[in-house]
Amino acid sequence: FDVLDEGVFEAAARTQVREHAFGGAIAAQALVAAARTVSTDRAVHSVHCHFLRAGDTTAPTKLVVTSLRDGRSYSTRSVIAEQHGKPIFAMTAASCPAPLGSSLTLR
């Protein structure tokens, strides 16, 4: 990822692949972008995704993260993935303090 601004990231195009983008790849990129905007002591608790239109693997993907809420128990982020100036994917992710013994890290 490149950091373009606070809460704005860009994932590079995958020029060696000439098909529609795989939805799981876009979802993973959005999840990592959201995780980079919350405190490091928080882990992802829930994710809701909407695939809006086909992605283009030859174009970079802009990921815009909006902080919806930072509470004591949860932090909530909205992520919109855009290509060619249009949204292709929308996600809401909630994070909470990581349970003891948790080893999953999305940095």
The unreliable regions are: none
How far apart, in Å, are the first and last alpha carbons?
11 Å
Q: Total number of β-strand segments?
A: 6
Helix content: 10-25%
Q: Per DSSP, what share of the residues sits in E-state strands of 2 or more residues? A: over 45%
Note the total helix count. 1
Order of helices and strands: EEHEEEE
Mean pLDDT: 88
Biggest sheet: strands side by side, in what order? 1-2-4-5-6-3
Largest sheet features: 6 strands, antiparallel
**Class based on secondary structure composition and strand pairing:** mainly beta
Radius of gyration: 14 Å
How does the overall form come out from the CA principal axes?
elongated
Explain what the structure shows.
This protein is mostly beta strands. 12% of the residues lie in helices and 46% in strands. The protein is built from 1 helix and 6 strands; from the N terminus they run ββαββββ. A hairpin with a 2-residue loop joins strand 5 and strand 6. It is elongated, with a radius of gyration of 14 Å. The N and C termini lie close together (11 Å).
